[in-house]
Amino acid sequence: MTSSTQITVPIEPGQSYQWSVQVPENPAAVANFTSEEETPLIAAIVSPMEGDEVDGETVTLEFQPVPDYSGNYVVRLQPTGWDGTQANGFTHESTDYYLDIVTSSTQITVPIEPGQSYQWSVQVPDNPAVVANFTSEEQETTDGNDDIPLPPPPGSLAPVIISPRMNDSIDASTVTLKFWPLSDYDDEYLVRLDSEDWNGSQASGFNHDCSVHYLCIATTDTEITVQVERGISYRWWVHHPDRPGVEATFTVEPGEDIPLPDPDIPIILSPEDNIEINDANVTLEFAPVAGYNNNYLVRLEVENWDGVQAPGFNHDCNVHYLCISTDDTSLSVPVDLGQEYHWWVHKPDFDAAHSNFSTASIELEQIGDRYLLSALASYSGTTADTSAIIQQAIDVIPVGATLELPAGKYYLDQQVVIDKRITLTTVGKSIDDPVSDLETGDYAELITSRNFAQEDGLLFIQDIEAMHHLVLNGNRQNRQNTSAYNQVSNGNNRFGILVVMASDDSTIVGNHFINAIGGTGLEVKDFRSNVRVDDNIFAYNGVHNQSFLWADGLTVHDAYNSQFVGNLFIDNTDIDFIFGGAQNSLIENNTVIHTADTTGGAFASIMIHKWPTTSGNYSGTIIRNNSVDGGPNKTAGTGLYIASEGWYDETPFGVTLSNPTQAEIYNNTVINTVNGMYVAAHDFAIYDNTFTNSHGVSFPASCRTLTANAPIVVSPTSSNIDFHGEDIDPETLYQFSEQDWDDCVPNWPL
To answer: What is the pLDDT of residue 259?
Structure first.
C-alpha cells in the first residue's frame, strides 16, 4: 500500500506480467504487459573473416566492438590438430586453447604456423560468441634461413629462440645459441646450457654466475658461441631475470672433433676454407680465445684489389680491403661477386687463424644489346637475398644495354644502385606496352625484405636511361617491428622510401610502386630535367592514420621540361602526387582514387607545393585533365592543393621574369573530397575545373575543425590568380569562398 503514483520494480526479460491498482474497498484497474527479450551483446568480426587465407607468420585478429559496451572480451584461437603449446607472450585464461585471453583490445596479433586451419571467436562474457574459420598459406622454403621465427610481439613475457630450436641436430664442435630479445627490455638475459651426464666442468671463456650448469651467464648478447661435445644431447634456455623462459633441446652429431688450434689463436667459424658466398655481404665470425677480453686484428684481402677499403669501418691500416682492431666476433662486410678472398684474425703479437673463400659469379644471356639475367629465376618464390646478383648484373653490362629480369618475386636485403645509362625491365616487355594488372604475374617484382634497413630506397637511381614494367614492393604489411619500420615510425621516413631517382633525361614507364612503409613510392630528387614519368601505378603506400607511417605515391622535388602523364594513384596516404616545383612541364591525365578504407586516406591528392629546399616555380607548366575521386567515405582531404601554407611558410608561384608563361590549371575534375581546391599561391591561371560533392562538410585538420564553404577555397594570401572571371561571374561565383587555413593540414587523422 502506497501513496506514490510511480513505483519502480525489477523485472525479468521475456516475461508476461499483470498489474493492478485500486483504492481500498473499490474496484481495481488492471493491465497486462510483457518485457522485451534482452538483446545479446555480440561483437562483429573484421578480419580474418570466414574462409579467409592469411599470408605471413602472424595473424591480427580484429573485431568491431559492441556499441556502448566498454568491458573486456573473451578471444580464443585454435588450430586444427593443436599440440597443446599455447601462443607465446600472452596471459591465458585456460590451457584449453592455443589462445585464450580476456582483453579490451580490438586487435590482437598472434603467431601462426603456415599451412594450418584455424578457428577464432570473440564474445562478451556470458553472451554468444561470433566465430570465423581461416587458413594460413603454405610457406615455400629452400633453405634453413626461411624458417627463422619472428621477434616476440610487444608485451611478450619471454624472448624467442632462433637456433638451435627444439630437436635440432648440430654437426660441429661449437654451437651458437641465438634468440630474439624482448622489444621492451635491453638489459641482461640469463642464458643456461646443460648436457646429459654433465661432469661439472663449465664452458671455458665465460664468466659464469652460477656453478650448477655447463653454461650459466648473464649477458646482453643475443648470440653466444659455446664449445660442445660430439654425440651428446643438450638443453638450453633463456629468460628475463624476473619472467618465464623459453627452452629447446638439441643433439650434437657423432664424429671427430676438429682439432682445436693453439689456445691463443681464435677459431674461425665462418666462412671456412673453400666456401662460396652468394651474397652482397659476408659475415666474418670467429670464436674468441678463452680468458682474452681485448681487441683482435681482423684482415680481409681480395684478389686484384683496387685499393678502395670496405666502407663503414675505421681502418687502422691502408694495405688491406679490411684492416681493423675490434672486440666484435661477428662482422658483416660488403663483398663483390665473382672474387677470391682471404681473411685472418689474431691477437696482437700472436699467430692468426686463416681462411679463403670465394663469391659466386653470375652468367648473363646476351641477345643483341639485351642481357637476360636468367639465373635470377631460380630465386623466385624464395626469400633469399637477390640484391648482389642484380647489382652485379647492373655493374657488368655496358652503357646503352637493357637488363631484363625474368618474371617472378625476388627479395632484396640490400639497396641496389643504378649509376649508368641502361634500361631495366622485365623479360619480353617493350617500353610501349600498357601497364599490366599485378594478377597477371608477368612482372619481375622486387620486394623489400624484413632485413632491409637502408635510407633512400630499395633502388637508388643515380643515372638511368629507362626503367619500365617492373613491380617495386615495399612489403609494408610484413615489415612491422623491423629496424626500418621503427626508424619510420619514429619520424625518419628516409628508411621507408621505395625508389629514389636522381637522374636527368630518364624515363619511368609502366611500373608498379606499392606498399612503401613510409616516405614515398618514388622520389624524383633535387632539380631534374627531361624526366618522363608516365603510365605507372602508385598504390597502397603508407598508412594514413598512424603517425609518420603515411607515404606519398610520387614525390617530385623540382622538374624542368618534364612530363607526368597517365599515372594511376590508389590509396596513397600522405599526398598522392606532390610537386615542389615544375617548369615548362606537363602534368596531365593522371587519376587519383581512394577507396572506403580510412587507413588509405590522404591529406591531399594532387599538391602544387613549395617546401624550403624546392623552388616553388611552376612557370610554363600545364596541369590539366587530371581526376580525383576521394571515395565513398571522402577519405581524401583536398583534391587540388595549390599552396604550401598548411605545412610551410612558403608560396608556390606560376610566373617569373625569365619565364613569363603563366602556369595553368584547367579541366581537372574532383569528386568526393572534403575540399575541392585550396589556393594560396601567386600568378596562376585556374579555370574550367569541375567539383562534385567536395565541400560543405566539417573535417578534422591539424589546427582545428574546418568546413569548406565552397568547392574552391581561396586564401587571403593568394595574389594574381586568374580565374578567367569565374570568381566574379554570378553563374560560377558560388564555387568560391575566401577562408584562411594557414598552418592547417587538412584531413588530419590523429
So the answer is: 54
Give the pairing type, strands 215-219 and 189-195. Answer: antiparallel
- Is residue 592 assigned to a domain? yes
Same domain as 325, residue 234: no
> Element (H or E) spanning 45, and its range?
strand 44-47
> Within 10 A of 155 (CB to CB), how many other CB atoms are there?
13
Mean pLDDT value across the chain: 91
Q: Is residue 201 part of a domain?
A: yes
Give the span between the Cα atoms of 312 and 297, in whole angstroms: 17
Angle at 330 between CA 224 and CA 270, to 5 degrees: 95
Q: Dump pLDDT digits (tens) for 699-739.
A: 999 999 999 999 999 999 999 999 999 999 999 999 999 99
Task: Report the C-alpha gap between 384 and 360 in whole angstroms.
Answer: 14
Whether residue 271 is preceded by a cis peptide bond, meaning omega within 30 degrees of 0, is yes
Residue 137 lies in a domain: no
Q: Does residue 355 sit in the same domain as residue 394? A: no
The enclosing H or E element of 421 equals none
Cell for 572? 596513397
3-state secondary structure of 621: coil
pTM of the predicted model over 0.70 = no
**CATH number of the domain bearing residue 217:** 2.60.40.10
For residue 444, the model assigns a pLDDT of: 96
Residue 219 is given by DSSP the state E
- Is 723 within a domain? yes
Regarding whether 376 and 350 lie in a shared domain, the answer is: no
Rounded to whole angstroms, the Cα distance separating 323 from 296 reads: 11
Round to whole Å and give the CA distance between 329 and 298. 10
What distances in angstroms separate CA 217 from CA 183, 210, 292, 458, one per listed residue?
21, 8, 17, 40
From 676, 716, 718, select the one nearest 697 (Cα to Cα): 676
If one counts the domains in the chain, the total is: 4
pLDDT tens track for 421-468 = 999 999 999 999 999 888 888 999 999 999 999 999 999 999 999 999
Statement to judge: residues 451 and 578 lie in one domain: no
- Judge residue 114's burial from the number of C-beta atoms within 10 Å of its C-beta, 0-12 exposed, 13-18 middle, 19 or more buried: middle
The grid cell for 217 is 651467464
Residue 669 CB: number of other CB atoms within 10 A?
Answer: 18
Q: Do 555 and 648 fall into the same domain?
A: yes
pLDDT for residue 145 is more than 60: no
pLDDT in tens, 40-79: 888 888 899 988 998 877 888 998 888 888 899 999 999 9
442, containing H or E segment: none
Backbone angles phi, psi at 281, to 5 degrees: -135, 150
314: domain range? 267-359
- For residue 255, is pLDDT > 80? no
| Residue that wins the pLDDT comparison between 699 and 275 | 699
